[in-house]
Amino acid sequence: MEENSKLDKIIEARMKLKARFQEKMAATPSVSDSRPMGSGEINRHGMPKLPAGQTRTVKWPVLDLGFKPDISHQQWKLVVDGEVESPVTLNWDDFMNLPQTEDISDFHCVTTWSRMDVPWIGVRLADIAALVMPKSTATHVLCHGYDQYTTNLSLEEALKEDVLLVHTADHKPLEKDHGGPVRMITPQLYAWKGSKWIKRIEFLSSNKLGFWELRGYSNTAYPWRDDRYS
């Protein structure tokens, strides 16, 4: 009964957040661009399956900063704080007790490859936001990895339903090379916007550039606009 009550509260809070940001989310290019750049069949958001300048791959190349943290489930924690009403620190069991979402989405790397139809299991970032409830002042998140990586997203991008913190990919636990035990995925943006080995989600009252954004990559990272660099 207690678990059902907790789930109901998360769903109710998520729906409030969705209503609060729905208009902004609907106006983002990944769902509203009238002239998207790309080719192939149309994806579920109305965009061409393959964005401009991308090549399909079956393999999953490994890209990182040259350091792969070795974080066990027992060591892993996720801090969610900043411009929120109720900051939390989640351990592995806390995270796994949140609503689990199964989804299939595409993964677009800025280095011009796209891996299609990847099956994922994880927790919606929107459900984590529902736990902490962003203040009215919150506009962005900055995601931090155990490798000291950071990347920024606007809340209208971060709260989309297919933005997940995943622990499973291709029907098996997420490998360390790809950011396990948990990484974020952002199917509607280039993949550098999803932190590997994620350890903190910081809600902000203004935009703050992350690691690659400070080094000349796009602040917005829209694949269907070939939006790679600032």
Automatic annotation (TrEMBL):
<dbReference type="InterPro" id="IPR000572">
    <property type="entry name" value="OxRdtase_Mopterin-bd_dom"/>
</dbReference>
<dbReference type="Pfam" id="PF00174">
    <property type="entry name" value="Oxidored_molyb"/>
</dbReference>
<protein>
    <submittedName>
        <fullName>Sulfite oxidase-like oxidoreductase</fullName>
    </submittedName>
</protein>
<dbReference type="InterPro" id="IPR036374">
    <property type="entry name" value="OxRdtase_Mopterin-bd_sf"/>
</dbReference>
<feature type="domain" description="Oxidoreductase molybdopterin-binding">
    <location>
        <begin position="69"/>
        <end position="212"/>
    </location>
</feature>
